[in-house]
Fold these 4 entries.
Entry 1:
Amino acid sequence: MTSNTSNESCESGPSTTVNEPRLWCHKGWSARIIKNEDDDGWAVEMRKDGEPEPALVGPWTMGRDKRNPKPLDAAAFNTLVKTASEVLRRHEQQRHALYHKQLAVDTPSGRISVTLDIIADEDDPHALLRACDAYGEPLAELRVTAGFRLSMASASAWIDDDFRKPR
């Protein structure tokens, strides 16, 4: 195999299956063994089809000759897909937690759920502050600045002020 083959990607589409010693592509994922720039070893790069950046880059085992990488195989590829998928899932959970806050406020009329959803728009960043009753029925929705801090105190003050725009 030439070194050019290992530098190619699986751009033909998600149905493309490639099983080469340094490049595997299957069901929307590609694993490519690359030279580790930090030392004399090798690394593996996992990329989901259509994504500009790899989801995972990690060290790869040397082959028996201690110079070339160990070839990819089905078991390694499946493990790498599972690991890369979990990394992407954690990133998505972290992004959701960063842009979505929720808390519950007990009031004399019942529990009110208050949420803040940040809209990270380059031209118009803002957030939506919402209140729902215990049954999920909307009570109020308001556009606020993206820097609005949702806390128990700010949510309670908003509710006590009959859902008027916070100052």
Note: The longest helix spans residues 74-99.
Entry 2:
Amino acid sequence: MPIIEMHMVEGRTAEQKSRVAAAVTAAVCQSLECAAETVRILITEHSGDEFYVAGMNMAQRAAKQKEQAQ
């Protein structure tokens, strides 16, 4: 039973999460040759101040990108 964990910043709609879950399920089924009923997907959402890339949270990254664009 494949279990896939997805972590993302808050803000996506239920429809978007359903679409990505369906696409990931299809890819896992094709790659592992397993039934969709065996695939589990866990989506965990994080606020922007809990999600870091290169040591900066989302607000810090946005400020840096704005500064670089000037």
Note: The helical segments are 14-32, 58-69.
Entry 3:
Amino acid sequence: MNSLEKIYHKVVFALLTAPTLKSWLFSFLLLFIIALICLPIGFQSGLLEFEFLHLSFIGIIKILVSRFFFPSFAEELLFRVLLLPRPTPNTPVNIQLTMAFTSIVLYVIGHPIFAFLFYQKAFSVFTNPGFLLSTLILGITLTISYLHSRSIWPPVVIHWIVVIVWLLIFDGYSKLDL
């Protein structure tokens, strides 16, 4: 099997693996832990403020749908599915840890690079130490969720919830000048 076939099978496996109830419950526990750790970081760094975004119903739906695909789905496909080894009981732990570390580092540094190259308005947010620390914590938990569930869907949902809560409730929308 060549490299492209391996990638294809890895992506299909991640997309078609149905998470178990245990995986969903574990992922929502991870989401709760993210909130406990990242909310104080966000408020202290000035990234989070209680400010409900006042948009039309259609505007909110557009945010919900668009943020599901980018960044949530796209980043999980890249940083978890493509960069991590396919989670199997036979994958050596040192390989999983090395690839997980690499994936998480690339995930964190990818945000300021993306902002610099494609969305300069977000550069000050994406280089904020509180944002980077929260992104690191999110990256770690998304990786754990993916390796635990063997599916792309729990990390996508966690990622999506974090993004939409930040945009719609904690003033992320105006911080990114969307």
Note: The mean pLDDT is 94.
Entry 4:
Amino acid sequence: MERRRDPERTKRRIVEAAKAEFSAKGFAGTRVSEIAARAGVNKQLISYYFGGKEGLLKALTADWQGKESTFAGTSPPATLPELVRGYVTATVRDRDLARILIWGGLQDDGEEDSALLRDMRDNVEDLRRRQAEGEFPADLDPAYLLLMLFAAADAGAIFPQLVRAICGDDPASEEFGERYGEQLARLLRHLNTDKS
């Protein structure tokens, strides 16, 4: 009996294979043929479904944004400590996506990514709003705070050897994510200037 084709399942396998390859080698170091081999498909299917590597990277970005919306797109909006804890947890749960972001920085060619620029400007504006509402002191620059928070949230993926050496934790464990996320949240609560 011939197996029925399942395009959605095939797309998911391709996206998961791309995530693993991009995580291991970076976007620039990954070949479409390697993604196809890992997914067990013909490389023409990658072009057909995604238009190539760039389309796969967009699919992974959309996947991340879907995960992000579960903790960052809440109503009412999460507090800054809750938000950062959410990013830490998401990074621990999907280290491959964090590693892809890290590779992007390592392979930076200086070209402007307009979607990333818009997203980061929106994030800085959100921090300015939070600052005006007293979530953190007026003498902190929201743009630099955002940069610090990104680095802090991704610390387990950036420095796994330091997590093991300093904390004695497995940087890929849920326990590390919970403990580290809580410590970052506590640190941010100390910045809250709204004492009412």
Note: Residues 7-29 form the longest helix (23 residues).
